[in-house]
Protein: GlgX-like protein
Amino acid sequence: MLNSCKGVSSPLGASNLVNSVNFAVYAPQANDVLLCIFDETGFAEIERISMFLHEGGVWSVNVEGLPDCCIYGYRVNGSYDLITGQLHNENKLLLDPYAKDLHGHFYWSERHFCHLPVGHFNEADNAFDMPKSKLSTLKKYEGIKPNIAWGETVIYECHVKGATKLNDKIPSPLRGKFLGLAHDDFITHLKNMGVNAIELLPVHSFISEQFLTTKGLQNYWGYNTLNFFTPHKEYLVDDCVEEFQQMVEIFHKAGIEVIIDVVFNHTAEAGLEGPTLSFKGLNNSGYYRLLSDSCDYINDTGCGNTINIDDPYTLKLILDSLRYWVEYYGVDGFRFDLASILGRGKDGFNENHAFFQAIHQDPILSQCKLIAEPWDIGPGGYQLGAFPSPWHEWNDKYRDTVRQFWQAKQHVLPDLAKRIHGSNDLFEHNLRGPLNSINFITSHDGFTLRDWVSYEVKNNLANGENNQDGHNENHSFNCGIEGETQDVEVNALRLKQQKNALITLFMSCGVPMIAAGTELCHSQIGNNNAYCQDNKINWLNWGSLESTKLVDFISKLIQLRNKFQIFKHTFFIHQEDQDFSVHWLDEHALPMDAIKWHDPTSQFLMCRLDDNNKNTSLLLLLNASAHSLNVKLPDTAKKWHLQMTSEPATKLNQIDKVLDVSAQSSWVFSANFEGNDYES
Structure:
């Protein structure tokens, strides 16, 4: 028998003390909460200990004589009432919401469901099929963080497994793992490009939905969280959570920040017909948004449930999780999936929501990089530009506008100028600047950059949904042939169009982000929703013939970008700006006027960016039309020098100050600048 006493109600979770462990869990509507201790295998439940109720609905118990890294779970006895939304069921072993480590695996079975399809109470015990909570001995992170300014940040969005699974320069046991990302070969790859921030798709413990596993598929992306404090075990080599901390420290020593994608909008428990794994059995009506006086879940996520951020203990859980990943794992920032939900109360989205205020005043979290995916599928869910300072946002309008321009759509020039300028129409209204815009052409969701210029129609049949899933409006084009081809001219045009997009991206004001594999010309064979493809569709092919064509190109673009202060400027540039100026010009080097801006036949834009302090200028020429143009370069005190072009250098045809700008091409020049490649 283990010795136990009441314990204390704070902190929540399992806490190692000198000679005992304190367990505390929030279950405000419960009649009784039992701490279940398991043997080292995690299958035999060796003891159940009644916990003690504190004011406010927290239960605790202090236990002596437990082994290091003990394995445990909770059982909760209380009301089971679909009308009031209470789903207590003592037969369900529950994960500790504050578990810092997990033991074992999750297996799908009917035993996980609180009730059976006909609505009857399910008395089956699910413990055998459940992972268990595990006491952690992880120490706080002690590494030195790079603290990279936003104006110098270049983000590489990356899936832990897919990035290194096929990289034969990395030892086989490390491939597809956190330590695979931390391998010298991958670090060197990022450094050579100039990337200094890696944004990892979800690394919180997650499970695959049952509708996927029955089709032989897996939730590859990981947006189906099981626990908010533990690293996903599949990404560990030796089942040791310290490996994530080790990875972060290696990245930091290389001068690379680590941002993680977090999913606080829903959990893996889905709706009423979903499993009871943790939150449902503890406080269903508190952790999730329910319709009044019912067990009907509000589904603003499309995943079955929606986290109830208005509940104080749910808010506390999220803040505690974020703080834990910063203090114990050393992460530098977060990208919040479907972040509009975190600012939505009963009356809709509110930029002054308690969640934003809590982070803003938090001495730890307020210093982190905070990135919002500013939309969800709920009412009023599209909130691009509505987040408060210091939040930064994925700018899908940037993505769509740049795609439309290179797709040769009409009436795009005014929007294109706004996006290159940093999207002041979206961010300046609440005193934010161009660096609050996370600019991207592609991300994990949608076509890869190569597929964007290779497919006009999505090819998602492998997902098992009759090609009904994924976006239909991708602003993509196939350069003449749908899908893969051996046609030399078509492939040359596809490569050039990828370069056009990248030049536009890195020569725009804002924070640039590329998706992993962009530099390797990675293709998903036209799948624009590859969330369930844990295979070569998603795994980067490091040895393909295409895998080296853009690495050096991106590296040179980032080097060029870093040399111009205008991309680090924290405010939008207007006519009264003394330090910088922006000029929009036509092919005759004349200022754009209203007629030219709205000419539907015009698919050319010239942008001149001047640094008035350093007397340097950057000139961007973008020609999306199918015809070449004779373009006059603007007057300057010194000669223009070619820095980058999507065309081979041999295509340069300069006559005085008139340049033959070929069809579907982009050009970058500089003036009064050392280190130029070509002189005009």
